[in-house]
Amino acid sequence: MSNFNFPGQTAFYKGKVRDVYTINNDLLVMIASDRISAFDVILPRPIPFKGQVLNQIAAFMLQATKDICPNWLQQVPAPNASIGIRCVPFKIEMVVRGHLTGHAWRTYQSGKRELCGVPLPEGMKGNEAFPAPIITPSTKADEGHDEDISKEEIVRQGLATEAEWNELERLAFALFKRGQELAARQGLILVDTKYEFGKKDGGIILMDEIHTPDSSRYFYADGFGERLAAGEKQKQLSKEFVREWLIANNFMGKEGQTVPEMSDEWIGTISNRYIELYEKVIGTAFQPEPVSDEELYNRIVEALKA
Q1: Cα–Cα distance, 216 to 191 (Å, whole number)
Q2: CATH code for the domain in which residue 170 is found
Q3: What is the pTM of this model?
Q4: pLDDT tens digits, residue range 199-238?
Q5: Which of 32, 56, 113, 180 has its Cα between 20 and 30 A from that of 283?
Q6: Structural domain tally of the chain?
Q7: Residue 218: inside a domain
Q8: 113: domain range?
């Protein structure tokens, strides 16, 4: 994907998977690339249609939650591009967990019973639902790894005031509840996710993507209880299968480790899993819409004019 130069462009940021263009300091053009990252490392090969999947799920979910919290999105001019309001971001990610899995389970297995200042109940099994969802925030690093952080530390460091934190917490729980309801309709369980917020004209705005396979983990509801009782792995829709493949091939983003080779077949498998997640989460068939760089540029410029 090209690095574009749009009329009125005042800044450009290349994220791990998104290219973000600032227009006249008040709008953002966000292009979801087909890049894939894990353990904060961009993997060497792109995944066909991944950008379209992420962009379209995020647009669907932002539309489905805007009654809870206003969001940044204004327009979707292309399958892998969105235009919206530029906010001043809170430098924290609101990670909401409904189940003990992933990073939380790895922490739990190491014997710790606290994560980001939140106590974890004794006697839990991997993938079990918490008595109520918990929030385990992390700092939003400009470079390198995001770090776990507690509510107290967030307020102490001035990343949010106590009043702002309380509102972020309220919104994150409300969004997660809506996400769980939307997932349940599709026979899925929203296991955990992350939200990012910003400020605009004194108000709090929901930013970035929500409830996508890059920001969330879903389990299939059918057979969940039986698998949990038997201690079996859950059938899931998320990027976790990519992380598991990397771990199995001795890669966790640590110094001196090399990303294993990604075969054409494996790239196809990842692409199909992303498309499966789109269809399962949205409930409609995925329509692949390849867009050339030239067409993408022209569509965005037309939308910006409007």
Answers
A1: 7
A2: 3.30.470.20
A3: 0.91
A4: 999 999 999 999 998 899 999 999 999 999 999 999 988 7
A5: 32
A6: 1
A7: yes
A8: 89-237
